[in-house]
Amino acid sequence: MTNDWLSSKEAARRLGVSAATLYAYVSRGLLRSEAVDGQRERRYRAEEVVRLKRQRDVGRKAESIANYALDFGTPVLESALTLIEGNRLYYRGHDATELAQTATLEEVARLLWACDETPFADDNLPPMTTALRRAWLAAATLSPVDRCLVVLPAAAALDHPSWVEDRGAMLETGVRVLRLLTAAVTGQPMSPLPVHQQLALAWRVPGERASLLRAALVLSADHEFNASAFAARVVASTGANFYGAVTAGLAAINGPRHGGLTRRVASLFDDLRKVDDLDAELGRRVRDRIYIPGFGHQLYPDGDVRAETLFALLREAMPKSAELAFAERLAQAVERMIDRKANVDFATVTVERVLGLPKQSALALFLLGRTVGWIAHALEQAAHGALIRPRARYTGPRPPV
Q1: Of the residues 196, 297, 304, 377, which is catalytic?
Q2: What is the 3-state secondary structure (H, E, C) of 154-199?
Q3: Could you give the CA distance from residue 261 to residue 145 in angstroms, rounded to a whole number?
């Protein structure tokens, strides 16, 4: 089948999609097409069509890739923050995987926020008001994301400088929000220490392994217009301050199709740890079309570069880890069966397991890293000054003539 070619009509027929959806697959990198000399018609490799059909069919329950493609990538907005191209990730033109080797989250924030060190002054912390203390106590037993959702509005109420629409004041507010959420995740007092150091201290990660936390944070900082970044940006476009924009991002990232997917990956680890025959259990799930979370990404057809980077760093830091060995064996087995590589959700949960972090730490790492991106989007949108207001394509009953 390697040398077999299909016309666009035949490729669409085999996939069971329209011509428009077929072209959408090509534009999003899910399928390649080649021109035929002297003709307008394009052709498609049969083996790639078969592979895409298998990827579409395996592991999905209610939603189909055709319907997903209809929403994926719309609306399109301009941004100078993040570029995803050629299976690489760039922050303002800097390769994110290279930044992950040495940069702190604060350094990436300065890059994405286009600022110097001034906003990160040691005394730039949110005021610890009575309302915030009460919220802190009330949220003590909640999950990291839920703690953040409780304390953030409480801090916003009396952080009056956060409403000043001056770039310097906005940058300082961004720092206060990041430090507040870090404290909410760790359950420790607010601190000017770098985020990864605060997490390492709270989670008792040895100093020589704190770089794994730092890398995970950096690789989570931004990812173009994902659901939570778009939510934060829409709220920022209304003139709301950064507390409001970040609250929107937090609400979105908690969903099971976004950052909350790490919970499902963690459950996958727990379930498959108990089985005697990993391949047999995975085979059963594939046959029963049970969704296997943590694999594949529409923007990285050759594999999620963020996951590849984290796995490389884990192998370097902890090559003898039994948890890492299990995660890699699981990733390889799933890839053999459904032809999808592990993505950043799977890799971040692996970091959580290898380092022995508290439950839902993978999501906590994701949200703290992404907070930097939400603030960057809010800053960019504030400078743009326009309200984001998409139009709807009406599909309901038509009014009487």
Answers
A1: 297
A2: HHHHCCHHHHCCCHHHHHHHHHHHHHHHHHHHHCCCCCCCCHHHHH
A3: 13
Q: What is the pTM of this model?
A: 0.81
Contact 380, 81 (CB under 8 A): yes
Known catalytic membership, residue 71:
no
Measure the CA–CA gap between 241 and 156, rounded to whole angstroms.
Answer: 9
CB contact at 8 A, 81 and 211: no
For 394, the 3-state DSSP assignment is coil
State both tokens at 238. 């209304």
For residue 298, what are the CA distances in angstroms to 29, 137, 153? 7, 41, 34
Does 297 participate in catalysis according to the annotation?
A: yes
Q: How confident is the model over 325-354, as pLDDT tens digits?
A: 999 999 999 999 899 999 999 999 999 999
Residues 6+ apart with CB under 8 A from 211: 196, 313, 317
CA distance 387 to 73: 19
CB contact at 8 A, 68 and 297: no
Query: What single-letter amino acid sits at 71?
Result: D
- Biggest distance spanned by C-alpha atoms of the chain: 74
Say if residues 335 and 341 touch (Cβ distance below 8 Å). Answer: yes
Q: In whole angstroms, give the CA distance from residue 367 to residue 362.
A: 9
Report CA-CA distances (Å) from 109 to 93, 148, 192, 201, 374. Answer: 14, 19, 14, 21, 10
CA distances in angstroms from 401 to 179, 395, 398, listed in the order given: 58, 17, 9
CA–CA dist 113, 105 (Å, integer): 12
Catalytic residue among 196, 258, 345, 377: 345
pLDDT in tens, 138-197: 888 898 889 999 999 888 887 877 777 788 889 999 999 999 999 999 999 899 999 999
